[in-house]
Amino acid sequence: xxxxxxxxxxxxxxxxxxxxxxxxxxxxxxxxxxxxxxxxxxxxxxxxxxxxxxxxxxxxxxxxxxxxxxxxxxxxxxxxxxxxxxxxxxxxxxxxxxxxxxxxxxxxxxxxxxxxxxxxxxxxxxxxxxxxxxxxxxxxxxxxxxxxxxxxxxxxxxxxxxxxxxxxxxxxxxxxxxxxxxxxxxxxxxxxxxxxxxxxxxxxxxxxxxxxxxxxxxxxxxxxxxxxxxxxxxxxxxxxxxxxxxxxxxxxxxxxxxxxxxxxxxxxxxxxxxxxxxxxxxxxxxxxxxxxxxxxxxxxxxxxxxxxxxxxxxxxxxxxxxxxxxxxxxxxxxxxxxxxxxxxxxxxxxxxxxxxxxxxxxxxxxxxxxxxxxxxxxxxxxxxxxxxxxxxxxxxxxxxxxxxxxxxxxxxxxxxxxxxxxxxxxxxxxxxxxxxxxxxxxxxxxxxxxxxxxxxxxxxxxxxxxxxxxxxxxxxxxxxxxxxxxxxxxxxxxxxxxxxxxxx
Length: 504
Fold this sequence. Notes:
Strand order of the largest sheet: 11-21-20-14-19-18-17
Number of strands: 21
Helix content: 25-40%
Structural class: alpha/beta
């Protein structure tokens, strides 16, 4: 007889201040050693289930909770969070939110130190985890210098060092490139081989093929359907689309082509020829480094031959009316490229020529609008509607309502933006970008936290923006989004342009 380790019995829950049930009388039993996927649309209750199992509900996130949750024999309602530390480990969507140290070694051993283990055992666990996950190259480094994939690896290692029976992963691939996702899969395989119980809340599906014992489909706070892993990955494209889930198979736009067409040093092996026009934009002499050496009497000018540049672009033509997907590995310079374009990096040397005018430095802010990867940095007001109105040169409430409806967030117009889910916040920031009506629209991973339905809506809006005469650049790890809306892909490798080509 199989031994159950997680039991959720007739649980209903709504967050404090909300009138809507996020979970509605759900029942779920997970057996020891199972790997289970929770999937479904944004807001269907996946993350709320994760928070039930790790005790964040009700001990951190308060609300109205009925029913019983038992994990490894612990009654979650009557068990403090610190008592669960050695039983349940969670890897959050944004690994930065769970870091307590400033260096990799300190982060890996933080959990075992915090529960008072003997120093020798702490070091043994650290060595074991580092060996199992093959992260020797990440030791002795600052967490602030790591790429997204490397941070995720350290977050996984810090959870593993506690030797929990249950491991929870909440949208673990959302900010990762393809190489990092493959590494994440390998880490999950290690946990499976150790007999861990693994529960994954996820929108991206393709990388989980062959790992899952069960798939739970959530809808409107209920567990609407359930399949074995093999049954789920045998579904047709049409069946997956009817469920409004992301595809089970995707094209690889990312690492292979970059390696083949760009050596990462000289760059620009295959830049498609785009004619300059007064309606488009041309980037000239864009150079930037995070590690600048001081010069006493003059500001040094960068050149394309300088080493250590985070961005090195001599010339690039951006056509009007096109959606350009900016691709490349984590840490290769995509976000830096966008930040430099819109004038957020003061030390970036470069000019954007558009409409017969030249824009330098912070002048580029007049030309562009950027939606950041972490949208919490650009949400300022106390309601969704006020946030969008703030971006307009002249307030237009009807246009604001139309934008919110097109993105499926009109019902939240009076809510505080920080009270929304990650995907909903993302759509608020996109709504603000549309309202700003800038000529150059920049999006940094706008669909990383979105389900397939809302990704489609974003893709349609990006195409609409381009067709209205905007130049749209979108840094993305989502091949589904590229298939939906991109006219070109621009690959960046180590801060250089690898190639730009049309999407076939």
